[in-house]
Design a protein that fits this description.
Elements: H1 2-21, H2 25-30, H3 36-51, H4 57-86, H5 88-110
Helix pairs in contact: 1-3, 1-5, 4-5
Amino acid sequence: MKSMFTFAGIGWTILYLGYYLSPTPIIFALFFIVPIWPAFWITYNKLLMELSDSTERATFYAFEGILSTILGAIVGIFSGYLADLFGPRNIFILSAAMAITATIYTRIILRGK
């Protein structure tokens, strides 16, 4: 589990750096085929399954879905605002920094587990 989260976090970091460093729209588009999301999603769902039992699983997934939707909207609006202020390309370097920071933090949290 720890390795999958670590690899997914490193993958997200590389993906965002690739977006940021892409010199042409074609190379930028090639980064869309990097399968980072599936690796993260598999790990994330496995973790949710392990954290819940069959009696609470539906509630757990429903809460996670609502939380993801609300936070996704907030992040989307805030990112759009930041892109207007600093330029869309700079959002990718910010995203890469946040991804590697979250990866390191998650690794520290999961160290004792």
